[in-house]
Design brief:
Elements lengths: L8 E5 L2 H11 L3 E6 L3 E5 L7 E5 L17 E7 L2 H13 L4 E6 L3 E7 L5 E7 L2 H6 L14
Parallel strand pairs: 1-4, 5-8
Antiparallel strand pairs: 2-3, 3-4, 6-7, 7-8
Length: 148
């Protein structure tokens, strides 16, 4: 067996409408279907779906703080230029989204945010695809402050 690509992510959310606005309107994922009032399916067009949101209600247990087992964050590629990243940063700030951090990882430039339920999301651009394709260890480069 060989994994070919990450296919999709499924997230439990407290409020489907709120999360649909975040992932659809703010981040720009296209909603392709609703599962009644319990779920929404999104795609960038790369495959049938990349994100499924399932509502579990406001009384669901929150994501625990600190070190824990499970998801740390997931990354969403939003382009290949710093201009695209600057545009995203301005849109996030205008929407009142708290920026958790930024980073220059050599192979990517990244902005870190949290979704309405506390899942960390990395929004990134590929900086030099030829570099990391030729030298995969470039992903181990030291993290530096991002200068946009």
């Amino acid at each position: 067996m060989e994994v070919k690509e990450l296919g999709h992510i499924v997230l439990y959310v407290r409020d489907l409408e709120r999360s649909t606005r975040f992932y659809g309107e703010l981040l720009g994922w296209r909603e392709i279907a609703q599962i009644g009032r319990q779920g929404a399916i999104f795609s960038s067009g790369r495959t049938h779906h990349e994100l499924l949101l399932l509502e579990v209600g406001g009384d669901a247990a929150p994501i625990p703080e600190g070190r824990r087992i499970g998801l740390y964050h997931f990354g969403l590629k939003i382009g290949e230029t710093d201009d695209e990243l600057r545009e995203a940063l301005a849109k996030l700030k205008a929407a009142g989204v708290e920026i958790g951090g930024t980073a220059d990882h050599t192979v990517t430039h990244s902005i870190y945010i949290r979704d309405p339920d506390g899942n960390e999301v990395e929004l990134y651009i590929d900086v030099q695809p030829p570099v990391w394709k030729k030298n995969p260890e470039a992903v181990l480069s030291p993290t530096r402050p991002l200068r946009l």
